[in-house]
Each structure stands twice: as structure tokens, then as C-alpha cells.
Amino acid sequence: MKRIAIVRLSALGDIVNSAFVLQFIKQAFPNLEITWVCEEIFTPLFHRHPYIDHVHGIHLKKLKRNKSFTLLKKEMHALRTLGNFDLVIDMQGLLKSAVVARLLSPNTHGFARDSIREGIASFFYKTTTHIPYSENVVLRNAKVVNDALNITITETMIAQKERVFPVLYPSIFQEEKKNVLFVIGASWPSKRYPKEKLLEVINNLEIKAHILWGNQAEKEEAEFIARHADNAVLAPKMSLDKLLSFVSHCDLVIGNDTGPTHMAWAQNVPSITIFGPTNERMIFETPKNIAIHSDSKVDILKINKSDFSIREIEPQKIIDKAKEIVDGI
Hints:
By secondary structure, the protein is an alpha/beta fold. It has helices spanning 12-16, 21-28, 60-66, 69-80, 95-104, 137-149, 155-159, 195-203, 216-228, 240-248, 259-266, 315-328, and strands spanning 3-7, 33-39, 54-58, 87-90, 108-111, 127-129, 178-183, 207-212, 232-234, 252-256, 271-275, 289-293.
């Protein structure tokens, strides 16, 4: 086997929680040529990545938005020009990712019908992996790669992994205090911890708090926090690769269940992830990457986006864990 492709479409968190496999694939097959296929917006994460040879970005969201047949033909042509692959691994398990994988090669591997949300995707695979959909996402990603390549990525190996992505920019921090990034955004309102309670957390920590924002509404919340906390500032507006470096230089990241918070785990940075309608299935917990969740009973097969139980988490729980982590750095 000389060339493989890995398909991982969809959200930032999905990319972050799957790219760790690259280092272990290269350990097993040093001469293997690897192409990573993802949405175009996420390709900066893989610039100068030591373990991939090519990254190919596609525009599925733009295609879905514009419904352009010309753009569809262009995307299909671009996929076919990538050449022949000995194996394609679909780590996403959605119909769209399965179709992309099949366009690249008939030798495809993905999740079995009973192991994914969109079971129809499994019909596009030559071989499949059986693992409960409710299993931890990081362990699911390790399992599908293990089966596809006949290698072994253990939980111990994952816990001892090196940084997942290269750090391209130096630190901009000058404060003597510990620099903590607070990720206040999320894809759903019910996944967002209230700004008033987050303010209480910040005001009870001897740190420099950097508030990450991604749109105007989040910026207004960040400004509210900064106005009411002497130790808080707005994080600068950043490109994806600069955000990755920013996270990599932090002492701690505290945030909702969303991509930038997951970056901390990928980069071996301590983190506290706050859960409400989702749960710790979404992260690989370590002594320095922990979950704090509400008392809500989460059904991962039928997530309740109207579950606002995250608002009931007491700030003191986060304060205590943050102090424990910061004091231990």
C-alpha cells in the first residue's frame, strides 16, 4: 500500500478529534503517502503538517447553498484528479462523506450501518467497522483507522500523543499571570454557558482571561465580560491557523462543547469543557482535559437542542477545577 486518503468533512470539532490518527499511521507506515480531504475552510489546519503529503479542500457547504451544477462538476473533477488511492477511509460516516470517498476509490472503509446516524452511507464502503455510535468519538476514530489499516492505536497511545497540529506562530502573551482562553460561542444556544456565570468564574481566578468571539453577538457578550472584569480582554480576531497557535500557547482553555475548546486537547493544552445537551462522549478526558456537565440525561442518538441545563451549572464547580489545573501548571 502506497497511497491512502482520509475523508473528514463537517465541523471543526470533528476535524480536531480525528486528526490525531495521523501520527500513529505514520509510525506504522513511514513511507505511506496520505491525503486529507475536508471542507476548504479547514485546510489551514494542515499547512506544513508533518504527517500528510496533501490536503484537499472541497466546497460542499457552498455547493449546498448555491445548488450549482457547474460547481458540482468542478468539485467532482477536482476529486478525480487526485489520482488513484489504495485505500480511502471515511471517518465521518455521513452520506456526503461516503460519496466523496467512493469517488476517490472503490477501496473504501467506513462505519457499519448500525454504527452511524446515516446508515445508507455504509453501502458505499467495501469494508466496515462495527462500534456503537454512543461510544466516545475519539475511540471511534481510532477504531475505524485500526480496522482499515490493521494497526493498533490504544487509549494509552492516545493519552500520550504528541501535538496534533503544527504551531506556526509564536506566542503573543506578555502577562506574568496564567493566560486562559474562554470560548463563549457554540453552534446552538443551549450549548452556551451564560455570560453572567462565566463572568463570575473569571472574577474569582488570578489569571489573564482572553475571551474568544466569532461573530457580532459573541463580540457583544465578550465586551460585556471585559467591561465587568479587570482581568479580561477580548481575544483578537484570528484566522484558523492563528487561532490554533493562540490556543497552543495558552495555559488553560475553558469553553463550551465546540471546536476551539477541543483544539486544546489536540494541542495537549489543559482544558475544561462545559456540557449541557451533549456529554463527555465528545472529548477524550485526561487528568488535564476534563468535563463539567449538568445533571441532564443525554441521549446521544436523539440530542435535545432545547435542553438548557448548562445554565444550572454552578460557577464554583468551574472555579475549583480551574484553580486546581492552574495551580498544578
